[in-house]
Amino acid sequence: MKELVKVRAAQQDDVEAIFELLELYVAQGIVLRRSKEDISFFIGNFAVAEICGRVCGCAALRDFGGDLLEVRSVVIAPECQGKGIGRALVEYMIGKLRKERASWRLFTLTTTPDFFRSIGFREVAKEEFPEKIWSDCSKCPKFNCCNETALLMTP
Question: Where are the domains of the chain?
Fold first, then answer.
């Protein structure tokens, strides 16, 4: 029997689960560390995926203004990978943008560009997002040796 994945807006009760999921990937250098306080403050930016009531994945949208947004913090519990949860989370975010905005540019910086290409993102230069570079990338330990690819989706 295939397990049913439910994607929904995150709530304050999800902070601990989101924090634990992100921490799994911080050590690998895949995502930047976020405190529980930061997650709690920005909980409205997150969506979570559940299987049988257990949070097994998350993603967040960051609004840089001027119709520029980033999909980030896309992480899936290791034992739940390969079930389409990441795709469901990113498509949930895209659907939200399509409902709420007439125009938008959604980007990501990722070590898994093929995943995002399969959803409809296209590769672009990182320099297209100076807002991201100066707000987050400048604090990243990989700043001078970044192995991430920039991708963009527009409506």
Answer: 5-153
Helices vs strands, H then E, count in the chain: 5, 7
The per-residue pLDDT for 1 is 45
Q: Are strands 68-76 and 46-51 parallel, antiparallel or unpaired?
A: unpaired
Strand, coil or helix: what is 108? strand
Task: Report the C-alpha gap between 151 and 92 in whole angstroms.
Answer: 18
pTM, rounded to two decimals: 0.88
**pLDDT tens digit string along 36-76?**
999 999 999 999 999 989 999 999 999 988 899 999 999 99
- Compute the radius of gyration of the chain from its Cα atoms: 15
Residue from 4, 2, 12 nearest 41 by CA? 12
Enumerate residues 6+ apart whose C-beta is below 8 A from 148: 109, 110, 111, 126, 142
CATH superfamily of 5-153: Gcn5-related N-acetyltransferase (GNAT) (3.40.630.30)
